[in-house]
């Protein structure tokens, strides 16, 4: 009887990052992995994945001949990552719980892969930018779940986002586009809705005026047109203000009693 072939493989830092990424997102294709970890070099990615699979660090789901390979993390890799302390920021999982989580059902498989499509697009496009970069892009809903109040209901509603990303950026648009005269913003009616997750606590704050949305240009004495929704530097108040002809008006001063931030949740209480 022939002995099973033992494959020895020296793991590189990039391999460990890939394994940790698979632990978080549960499934990826070779295209995802090439974009996220190998600068888009698919042929090199496939060769490296073959070695990782042969060494038992990565598994492959059953598939038809015309379907893409879908990869997942094996128990061997889970034990390795846990022993090196690389999973401490995630909820603690036992070996059986890990395998149950990694075994994505067919019903949710397409959804999980579509989330990875979005993540890969973000990375591919921002990799070409000289101004912006991705500090974090997590796809573990429990890490960033939060509760929101719902009108007419006594209990808050839990929200578990499919993804959380931290891209330091200032997005700027024209009020009216010069090429087709399309209007991006009107000031007479409408609403703005957004979720904001700070990386600071009240009392510390952003350190400067933290603008969520800003139109025009603020000036202390020159005639100008401006309005903005923003935090003060210590993060204790939320303002909505406007200025015209050098006259400043505060329409809203919302005093925040407490804003506490942590790695897995943000909560706020207001007076």
Description:
Helices cover 27% and strands 23% of the residues. With 271 residues, the protein is of the alpha+beta class. The protein has 2 domains: 13-130, Winged helix-like DNA-binding domain superfamily/Winged helix DNA-binding domain (Arc Repressor Mutant, subunit A); 170-270, no CATH class. A 5-stranded antiparallel beta sheet has the order 8-9-10-11-12, with no helix packed on it. It is elongated and about 75 Å long. It starts with 12 loop residues before the first helix and ends with a strand. Mean pLDDT is 84; it is low at 259-271.
Number of helices: 6
Principal-axis shape equals elongated
| Share of helix, binned | 25-40%
Domain module count:
2
Q: Compute the separation of the termini in Å.
A: 76 Å
Provide mean pLDDT, rounded. 84
Classified by CATH, the class of the largest domain is: Mainly Alpha
Uncertain segments = 259-271
How much of the sequence is in beta strands? 15-25%
Largest sheet: 5 strands, antiparallel
Radius of gyration: 24 Å
Structural class: alpha+beta
**From N to C, what is the helix and strand string?**
HEHHEEHHHEEEEEEEEE
CATH homologous superfamily grouping of the largest domain? Winged helix-like DNA-binding domain superfamily/Winged helix DNA-binding domain
Major β-sheet strand ordering: 8-9-10-11-12
CATH topology of the largest domain: Arc Repressor Mutant, subunit A
- Work out the number of β strands: 12
The CATH architecture assignment of the largest domain turns out to be Orthogonal Bundle
